[in-house]
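Field: COMPLEX_INPUT
Field: COMPONENT_COUNT = two
Field: RESIDUE_TOTAL = 686
Field: MODE = joint
Values follow.
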Amino acid sequence: MTRRTWSVAVAGATGVVGEEILAMLDQRDFPVGSLRLMASARSAGKQVRWRDHDVVVEDLATADFHGVDFAFFSAGSAQAAHARRAAEAGATVIDNSSAFREDPSIPLVVPQVNPHDLDGLRVPGDRPRPGLVANPNCSTILFVMAVAPLERHAKIERAVVSTYQAVSGSGAKALDELARQGEQERTGQPLEAAVYPKPIHGNVLPFVQAFTDDGTTTEERKLVRESRRLLGRPDLRLTATCVRVPVRRAHSEAVNLVLERPVTPEQARAWIAAAPGVRLVDDPATLAFPTPRDADGQDDVLVGRVRRDPSHERGLDLWLTGDQVRKGAAQNAIEIAEELLRG
Amino acid sequence: MTRRTWSVAVAGATGVVGEEILAMLDQRDFPVGSLRLMASARSAGKQVRWRDHDVVVEDLATADFHGVDFAFFSAGSAQAAHARRAAEAGATVIDNSSAFREDPSIPLVVPQVNPHDLDGLRVPGDRPRPGLVANPNCSTILFVMAVAPLERHAKIERAVVSTYQAVSGSGAKALDELARQGEQERTGQPLEAAVYPKPIHGNVLPFVQAFTDDGTTTEERKLVRESRRLLGRPDLRLTATCVRVPVRRAHSEAVNLVLERPVTPEQARAWIAAAPGVRLVDDPATLAFPTPRDADGQDDVLVGRVRRDPSHERGLDLWLTGDQVRKGAAQNAIEIAEELLRG
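Field: COMPLEX_OUTPUT
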């Protein structure tokens, strides 16, 4: 029996996340029949190797999406009009920007957490309906993956999150800047910062993306608002400090939870260990705890340091880390498409 | 009028903190009459330059402390017996290890926060009584410096802290390891970890010092217990996750506070800005926020990102960073001696 395949498009194909989507479509053996790639005019005309053939990159601004079944967009919020255009042309569009994440008419989904929010697009036994799905913010995906088992069993009363975010979250230019600053330090030159307002090499920046008018950052606001949507808790009490660290890839988060009922660390570990897409790495006796270098290239979100919070009888502290280019972006987008194909 | 001077000893003089104590005794113009240096047998006999002369390092194990007025110990908990011996020989000993920090009979002091806890050693118009003073843990000093103004005006109901701790906190060997791993990565070699259980270059480790039997780390426990003593709040509700980051010097902390009454960010900023030894660096409009590179070599603890906590009507989030070799260790020790000399 021949497997049914689909026409797939990747917009923003030459960026960090776009490249990862291409790699993971192959690794996960997504049923790609034909593949089209789009990017900005600057990259149009380039040839990109995928499996055994070369694909010419098209200009996103003028690309015609008729005939495309699945379009993975990782082209930034500024290209949201093209994502809409693709959906109107008949594609099921999974958009990695923040453009649609607060639109209540568009599902925001982590398949392991809120797959039912895709129900409006599902067509049993066939490809999903045309339309938009928003792929959440990277830090948010990792956070909800780790806490969803606890929310499910004991409900979160309040959460405090501090992030340790990798440079790859800011794209290839930022990775170049980190490497260049390392070289500048080694050779005794002054460190030049362009992508970030201050040097990131040998430093940490309590600032991710941009400030909003109330002194939080857009990243912090996304973590709060998108977690509320993903967990189905519009009133969820959550606060975050988002910090950039000189790590190339994989975000980490220190999470404090107050639950609605007391939960022992042993019980919490068992729930986390049983959750799909999450791996428990937590054994103080053997110094087992997860670090971003361990999560780099992994599909699973790694969770450890689960322990009693000495400040609250219903409190738990934990630590998580996950490859934000994979589960935090490309992988989650493909998992959304896979979930939709399950019908 | 000639200024009265004192006989000063520095034990652990060849370590990261010992060297900083020597530099700061000079920079702060501490009234040093004579200076003696002690270290392990391995370093005994070495000559160390201080101001315009060389001082021969003595073996701490056999050094006689009679005649010493102030002894600054930065020799680790294993040398606590020698700190006791120095106090019994008549010295006022300021010990930087954790050996005495939980002993209620020995003051644990940050002069800007709880100077009154030194009262038992004060002798107006003369040098203080012989005895021991414990210099707190580095992360703890920085934390209480930033939150003491808020505790004073509005009392802390609960605090959640996540740290971003520099490698210098683990001494010169760890700094060498960080540099060596950077070189190994640059030349395509595997990264070798010895001081830490995993590579610290391009990584973050949710593990500082050692695990206790309940899955917290000794560093996390110190932050909780020592903050309670320093703030005079034995019941203070506080939890911490302590994390090592690839920064050479200066620790940072993301702090969430729930206060006993609502406080606006503007009011909190005014109290912090008015506190001694703390500098407010907080203006989203000009992207002003403090980073560890800004704090490196500074006496003040830098505080920024003061903002409303969206999860609690009495909550505040803030960020701090401070040079943990200076205010987090050497500087605080010398400030204790200076405070005692004020009588």
